[in-house]
Structures are given as C-alpha cells and as structure tokens.
Amino acid sequence: MKQLIQSRPLLWVLLALPGVWMIWRWSWGVSTYGEIVSEAGVVATQLLLAALAVTPLRLIFRRGSWLIWLMRRRRDIGLAAFGYAAGHLIVYVLRKRDPTLMLEEGLEPWLLSGWVALTLLLVLAATSNDASVRFLKRGWKRLHRLVYPATVLVFVHWILSAFDPTTAYIYLAVIGGLEVIRIGLQWRQRVT
Fold it and tell me: For the chain, what percent of residues have pLDDT higher than 70?
C-alpha cells in the first residue's frame, strides 16, 4: 500500500483530476469559457507555487520523509504546472480562433506577460528530464532558475487580466514570504 501511495502513476492521476473535472464541466456546458480559462490558470499557478515551495520547506523543516518525497516529485509537479498552463492557452485559442485577433491581443501587456511566461515554462518543461540534467550538468540548475522570472510574469499576467486580482496578490504574498525565508536561510548557511 505504501508503494502505491508513493508511486508516480498515482501522483499523475491526482495531478490530472482537476483537468479531467474542468474538461467534463466544459464539455457538458456546466462551466463557461471564462471559468475554465481562469481555473486552468489558477491550477497552473498553484502547482508552480507548490514546486517553488519545496526548497524553502526543505530549509525550514530540514528532515522528514514527506520532504524527500516532495523533492523527488518536484519536476513532476512543475511539469503538471506547465500542462495546466498549456491547457489555459488551448482554451484561449479555441475561444478566439482568429490568429489576427490573438496577435493584436498578444501585444497587450496583460497577454504578452502570459506568452513570455509560457515560453519560459516550455523551456523548463522541455528540459525537465534526466537526459537534460546529464547533458547540461551545472547549466541545468542555472537554466531552471528561469522559473523565478517566469513566476513573476505569471503574476503580472494574472494581476493585469483578472477582474479581481485579490487571490493573485494573496498567492504572491505567500510565495514571496517563502522565497524571503529561502534566501535568508541560504544566506545564513553560507555565512556560518
């Protein structure tokens, strides 16, 4: 039973459940375009923040089997975040359908920030595999620091495009607090 709970396939089933629920609701007309595009973006952001929270949590709590599990699954969580971000884009494209309109809108700051964030997340997703880690060596870690500007752009996109950006500000405060803690703890470890 313990192996099943810790298995990757079960994790991916759990990560896919919100997407399956969204697709079901949209296909049956229960949810509108606005609800689905918003939910896909929120789930993508939640998973991105979960992946980012791993290092601060490890530095704060130091030990625990749940931390080891989280460290080993961070790439999976990040890939799922990209998957939901791609779903967010797919819903947008299916709704707009007009490349000219998408290009015009794409130059607006609220959408341009989303496009750039998605491009950065695509690079991270494409290199989130063992072969890339071996090939890039130390450069892999440097490349994956692009997650920080990508996250900032995700929040710029969310704040500029939301009718009510309160939730975005709350999430931003939480991840900002965790990152301040991470930086402080890492700095303290280097000094001592």
Answer: 96
